[in-house]
Structure formats: structure tokens, C-alpha cells
Amino acid sequence: MTRTAYTTCALCEAMCGLRVEVAGDRVVEIRGDEDDPFSRGHVCPKALALQDLHEDPDRLRRPMRRVGDTWEPLGWDEAIAFAADRIHDLQRRHGGDAFAAYLGNPTAHNLGAIVYAPLVLKSLRTKHRYSATSVDQLPHMFASFFVLGHQLLFAIPDLDRTDLFIAFGANPLASNGSIMTAGDVRGRLRAIRERGGRVVYFDPRRTESAKAADAHHFIRPGTDAFVLLAMLHVVFAEGLVKLGRLASSCERLDVLEAVTKAYTPERAERVSGVPAATTRALARELATTERALVYGRVGACVQEHGGLAAWALLALNLVTGHFDEPGGVMFPTPAVDVIRGGAGVGISRGSFGRWKSRVRGLPEFGGELPVACLAEEITTPGEGRVRGLLTICGNPVLSTPNGAQLERALAGLDFMVSVDPYLNETTRHAHLILPPVSPLERDHYDLVFHAVAVRNTAKWSPAVFPKPEGARDDGEILGALLEAIEHRRGRLTKRALRATALRRLGARRVVDLGLRVGPYGAGVAGVAVGERGLVRARGDLSVAALERAPHGVDLGPLERCMPDRLPRRDGRRVIDLAPQLLVDDLRRLDEYERRLDDASPALSLIGRRQLRSNNSWMHNAPQLMKGRDRCTLLMHPSDAEARGLASGDRVRVASRVGEVEAPLEVSDEVMPGVVSLPHGFGHHRPGVRLRVAAESPGVSLNDLTDDRALDLLTGTAVLNGTPVEVTRAPG
Ligand SMILES: Nc1nc2c(c(=O)[nH]1)N[C@H]1C(S)=C(S)[C@@H](COP(=O)(O)OP(=O)(O)OC[C@H]3O[C@@H](n4cnc5c(=O)[nH]c(N)nc54)[C@H](O)[C@@H]3O)O[C@H]1N2
Ligand SMILES: Nc1nc2c(c(=O)[nH]1)N[C@H]1C(S)=C(S)[C@@H](COP(=O)(O)OP(=O)(O)OC[C@H]3O[C@@H](n4cnc5c(=O)[nH]c(N)nc54)[C@H](O)[C@@H]3O)O[C@H]1N2
Ligand code: SF4
Ligand SMILES: [Mo]
Q: Is residue 659 part of a domain?
């Protein structure tokens, strides 16, 4: 007897609907759900690997405690009590800040984790909060906070209606789209060209996306801000500014004009390699095409001037009239509105500089410190040293700069606990691992990615399989941990009682409340709604209503919502086109340009993503690991020739912080002077329980990236543009 279950793939941001054929407790087949109004049947190879994940014998099923070099299983109650006792004891003796937390990327893809992890972090009362944000989208959050007043007001490409899509540092055909949630992003990009529009990429590599586009321009790593500022320069110089409907909300246009005057396309050409004529032509095309936009992603973020690039991207869309307009960048109205808040689902608008990191003095953003500082906060002696760590959904040893240094630091912690299904490069240093159920054993609602989607939709996906006896999902694990931590501080305190109530509430009820008070909900008596009082109820969404629509519901295209959606600053809803902090940071950009004059002849190392891979943690899925070794170093033929190297040679790649060896792949896909290695490999570490991954371990790109290299404005790690030397490997 087989049955059909409908669910959503939560591996990447695309939210693909799945149709899963199930026999008993086994997966028979996974296919795209053609009735899903958002993804329309599209899936990528990773969806099939959900079966691998589900069945993976290496996936941990019970809490495990490390005793020396061996691991012992233990029961949940004992495990949670052990964690809470150790955390409490450590903080009592050394202060709250002696315990740190790191949240990884799957937190955002996991309902239980996204609801409960922030609550646990709050209850830890530590300034040492870290996450994958500072190796990813932090510059966008930073720019949105200062320009628009809320860190989560991401400007989303209105992909389905645009006629010009210009992308800096994104590879949607491999990543399936990022901060641009779009089921079947390939089809949606193809449709732009089919309706006569154009798709253009700026990337140091001619990626799979670039190959399927109208134009691709090589750009030197780390120089996007120069090109984007030059585009602004052209828009002002040629009188192409069009603020339109939002003119009265925009402030400091004159400052933006004044500061971009110096950034000519010629100057950008010298630094970036992008011809001045290209910059001019594209700036004009952007300004004069009715439905057009410019977009930037990881490549434009994790670099030395990511903050400036993110600001320039926003500003360009604003001054060319492509902000909050169909076909430009727009703002979703998600069914659970995490920006407007209400019913406890709101996310704060942001903060900056309320405290600084102990060792390097780097400012917090949004309550977090840059993860590039985590290792030094553990190893540098003195008052306030980090002695304990909680990781949730994270593998910072492979994902953050100078991972080898972090790895050594983790080994010296007094106590480390990881909420994670695998014994991997990071969690092997934990004293306790708390493993959640598989993705097919948990309910799902996308609180994050509905809020960054190219269309408004909503979908509740019940677990495909019931939770196995004695298993817990992330929400249950973190809810129990939250309660236990607060109860150690006093059983009857207000916070302890609240923690118990929150644990009992459960993630499903949180979503239900969020839906009811959201823009398509019927409201709930007695619950405060957002900052603006009761919002207009447009429907009757609730979890029960969504359960009656297993393929999800379509809530229509993105709609104009500005300036209403801006939070008030000093009582007013304004857009600051030229925040002073960003203007001041231009000085650093100028210094960078001067430094280039005496730059060393080193190669510039960038990363790459592959369709059959997902950051650092899916190399244990057999269906994704078939075929040749993918962890190769790409190098342009002219650079290979200059070094007497050929495809297949083993090369040594060395940076300031480390060196690795990898097979060389000579290719004119990368621009001269640039080499590329995928990130997320490096599974050779001892003590890791990933048998499939260990067969093709590769090397870690982040054993080369430099923890000292930061976008100093935002605290984002520089993961692209690392100077390296490449030589033939000895022997
Ligand atoms: N050089 C370089 N480095 C990069 C990048 C780059 O482009 N170049 N990209 C950066 C980006 S964009 C990101 S987002 C970060 C990611 O950085 P991280 O989030 O730290 O790393 P991931 O590889 O996503 O690891 C996810 C971890 O979560 C676990 N996990 C998976 N699913 C679940 C779940 O449902 N519950 C729990 N509790 N755990 C789960 C996995 O076993 C794994 O340990 O890496 C960054 N690092
Ligand atoms: N298959 C797969 N899908 C994924 C992931 C994955 O690991 N595998 N990870 C997920 C995550 S966590 C994220 S954040 C998204 C990321 O999604 P994307 O940002 O779309 O994906 P990337 O491949 O990181 O694209 C970055 C591009 O920037 C280029 N680049 C590098 N340096 C520079 C530079 O200085 N300037 C410019 N203009 N370009 C530069 C790189 O060559 C690369 O092509 O993907 C998500 N989806
Ligand atoms: S694109 Fe692939 S990994 Fe992303 S949600 Fe769809 S099936 Fe899952
Ligand atoms: Mo990411």
C-alpha cells in the first residue's frame, strides 16, 4: 500500500512543492508537485536527496555525549538537563558572556528552529551571538536598516514582470535563487528573455547562469561598489533621476549626487576591469527601461566593500524609479508578517554598535558580532573570554573564514553543545549533540522565505512521516532547552514561567497566530497586531485553512506598499538615500583603490556553488555524490601557462592563513588573475561520521579565507578575493 504526501523542500530558498510516494515508513519516490502554484512542479536534484538524508545511517537518531574520544547515547531528559546544568554553571562562574551561540543557515529553513532559536539566544543573555549572517547577507541587512529603517526590508526582484535583470555576484542557476525566493528560477529567468527582456551578469566567472544570459561581464573580485557607484554617477550626470511616487519620502538625494560625482566609469574600469562604456550603457538602459532592476547577492556581499555595494544597489533602484514598482524591486506581503510583527512573530528592526567585540572591538549589528571574531574570542585570555558554545544548524568549521583556526579554538572549550543531525567537522568538538528528526518528519511553514519571495503565497506542509518514537524536532529540542535554562535561574520567575508557556505553545500555534493576525488573516481577539494597529483583513488564513490546501495558496503578485511599509523613524516614514555611515565608508573604498597600485601579483581566490551540493552538509547523500571529484581549482589558461600547469595537475594553494592541495581545472570560465574553489568541502577531518562524504572529502576553501579580512563597515567576512599563491604540489 502506498500513499501520496505533499510537502515542501526546505533545503534551499526556492520552496519547491514535493509529491512524495510513501510505502509504510519508506520513501518510494519524490517528484515535483505540479499543483503547487508557486513551484509548478519544478525540483532540482537535491529534492531526491531528501530520501538519502532521511535514510542516512550516519544521521544521528539519539542524543550523544562525548566521553574522551567515544560517544555514548543518552535519553532526552538527561541530555537537556546536562546541557542546561553545564550552561548555567559556566555562566554563574564566569558571567553570561562566557557562553556564546552560533546559528547556521538551516535555522532559516526549519520552522521549529526559526521560532525557538531566537528565544534560546535571548535567554542565554550573552553578547556573544554569532551566525551565518556575517558570512552571507549582512550587507543587505545593514543597507536596509540604514536606508529603509528595517534590517529585513529586503528589496526583492519582481522577476515575473521585469524586462531587465542585472545581477552582481549571483548564480541563480546553481543556487536556485537567493533573497529572491522563486520556484523554478531558471524558467522565470528564461521567461524574461522570451518576452524580449534582457538578463545580464557581473561575475568573475562565466557561470552557468551567465552562460544562459544575454550578457556577462567579468568583474574583479571585490570591486562591485566601484561599478555600482559609477552607474549612479551616470544616472545623475545624464539627468536620468526619477524618484516618482516616492520623491517626498526620499531624503538626501543631493548628498548621494555629490558623493557619487567622483566615481566615474573610467575610475571603475581601472579597478574592476569593467569597460567604462559598458557601465555607461547599462546605467542608461536601467534608467530608461520601464520595468528593470539591479540585484546583487553573495558575490557582492562577502567582499571588502559589501556594505557599500548593497547601499549602491538599493540607491540605484531608487533613483531610477525601479523601487516598489512592478518589474523593479518590490516588497512581499507575507501571510505571517515577520516585519510588521504581531503575536510574537516580529523580528526587530535592527541595531548597530550597542556593544563591541572584546578582542578586535568590532560593533554588533542586529544583536550579533561578526563570526570572523569567534575564534579569537575563545582563545584570547582575559575577562569575558568565551568558554562555552551552543551551535544550532551550523558548521562554522567549514563555513567561516580560517576554519582551521576556529577548529583549534573549539577544541579548547569547557563546554560545547550542538543541535545538529550529524557528527561533522564542527559538532565533533561538542560535548553533547542533540539531533533533530529528518526533514520528512517535521511540519513545515516557511516563515523566512515567504517574506523574500517573488510572489505572495502561503503553504503549510505537515510532516510526511510521523516522528519516530522518542525523536524530537528542532522546536521541541530548543523549547525544552529554553525552559531548562530559565528554570536553572529560578523556577517561579516570570521568565521561567514564560519559557514554559512558550515551550508548550509549539511552533504550529505560533504560525497559526501569525497567520490570523497577518494581512490575510481574520484576526484574533485580544492579540496586539503590529505597530500600526489592526491591519486590513483580506481573508481567513489560519493553519487549519492551509491544511485544506496541501499544494499551497497563491496570494497574488507583489504589490506596491511603500512608504507605508517603512517603519517610522522619529515619527516619519523616510528613505535615507545617503546614510552618513555609508558615505563615510567611501574613504575606505578610496584607500583600497590606492592600495591596488602596489598590489602583489597574487591570484584572487573566489568560491563557487554547485547545484548538487548545499553549503557544507549534503556531501553524505549518495545520489548527489556520483561522478567526478568536484572540488577542483579553476584557473584561466593564461595563468596556468605562466605557471607551467595543466588540467589534472595537483596544485598547492596558499594564503596568509593556510594551504590546501587540489586538482587543477584549466578553464577560461574564470577571468585572468582569478581562481575558484567550491566551498563546503574538507571532510577529511578525524572523528567525523560522514562515510559517503569522506570518500570524496575535498578541501575546505575556508582553510584559506582570512579571518582578518573583513568589510570593516558591516563586519562581513571577505570570502571572495582572497590573495593566494598557486604552485605545483610537491611529490
Ligand atoms: N568561502 C565561502 N564560505 C561560505 C560561503 C561562500 O560562498 N564562500 N557561503 C556562506 C553562506 S551564504 C552561508 S549561509 C554559510 C553557511 O554556514 P553554516 O550554516 O554554518 O553551514 P552549513 O554548511 O549550512 O551547515 C549546516 C549545519 O546544520 C546542520 N543541519 C542541517 N539541517 C538541519 C536541521 O534541520 N536542524 C539542525 N539542527 N541542523 C541541521 C548540518 O548538519 C550542518 O552541520 O556558509 C558561508 N560560507
Ligand atoms: N546548490 C546550492 N544551492 C544553494 C546553496 C548551495 O550551497 N548549493 N547555498 C544556498 C545559500 S546559503 C545561499 S546564501 C545562496 C547563494 O546564492 P547566490 O548568491 O546566487 O550563489 P553563489 O553561487 O554564491 O553566487 C555568487 C557568485 O558571485 C561570484 N563572485 C565572487 N566574487 C565576486 C565579486 O567580488 N563580485 C561579483 N560581482 N561576483 C562575485 C561568484 O563567482 C558566484 O558566481 O545559495 C543557496 N542555494
Ligand atoms: S531548488 Fe532544489 S533544493 Fe531548492 S527547494 Fe527546490 S528542490 Fe529543494
Ligand atoms: Mo547563505
A: yes
CA of 18 to the centre of ligand 3 (A): 9
Cβ 139 under 6 angstroms from ligand 1:
no
CA-based end-to-end distance of the chain: 58
Q: For the chain, what's the residue count?
A: 731
Structure confidence at residue 269 (pLDDT)? 98
Q: Residue 239 maps to which CATH number?
A: 3.40.228.10
State whether residue 547 is helix, strand or coil.
Answer: helix
pLDDT digits (tens, 9 = 90+) for 450-509: 999 999 999 999 999 999 999 999 999 999 999 999 999 999 999 999 999 999 999 999
CATH of residue 485's domain is 3.40.50.740
For position 1, what pLDDT does the model report?
A: 85
Same domain flag for 74 and 46: no
Q: Are residues 314 and 343 in the same domain?
A: no
Query: Does residue 182 share a domain with residue 307?
Result: yes
Alpha-carbon distance of 368 to 373, in angstroms, equals: 11
| Co-location of 202 and 293 in the same domain | yes
pLDDT at residue 343, as a whole number: 55
In angstroms, the CA 486 to CA 476 distance is 16
Instruction: Tell me the sheet residues that pair with 44.
Output: none
Distance 561 CA to ligand 1 centre (A): 33
User: Is 664 in contact with 632 (CB distance < 8 Å)?
Assistant: yes
Q: How distant, in Å, are the alpha carbons of 422, 467, 520, 713 from that of 606?
A: 27, 41, 43, 21
Q: Report the nearest-CA residue for atom 4 of ligand 3.
A: 12
Number of domains in the chain: 4
Name the one residue in this structure whose C-alpha cell is 481573508. 539
DSSP letter assigned to residue 58: T
Taking only Cα atoms into account, the Rg of the chain, rounded to an integer number of angstroms, comes to 25
Ligand number nearest CA of 104 is 1
Q: How far is the CA of 224 from the centre of ligand 2 (A)?
A: 15
Which residue positions in the chain have pLDDT lower than 50? 525-537
Q: Which runs of consecutive H residues, i.e. helices, occur in 597-650?
A: 637-642
d(CA 609, CA 590): 31
Nearest to 424 by CA among 710, 64, 83: 64
Helices and strands in the chain: count of H runs, count of E runs: 22, 32
Q: What is the pLDDT of residue 522?
A: 72
Place of cell 518514537: 469
- Both 130 and 226 in a single domain? no
Q: How far is the CA of 46 from the centre of ligand 3 (A)?
A: 6
The residue nearest atom 2 of ligand 3, judged by CA position, is 44
Q: ω into residue 563 within 30 of 0, thus cis?
A: yes
Is the CB of residue 104 less than 8 Å from the CB of residue 392? yes
Parent domain of 238 = 158-330+573-584
* Residue 708: all three cell numbers together: 582578518
Q: Which residue from 118, 256, 134 is spatially nearest to 580, judged by alpha carbons?
A: 256
Which residues, 6 or more positions from 560, have their beta carbon under 8 angstroms from its beta carbon?
A: 245, 324, 325, 326, 330
pLDDT tens, position by position, 74-84: 999 999 999 99
Residue 533: the pLDDT is 37
In this predicted structure, what is the pLDDT of residue 538?
A: 56
pTM assigned to the model: 0.97
Q: What is the DSSP letter of 520?
A: T
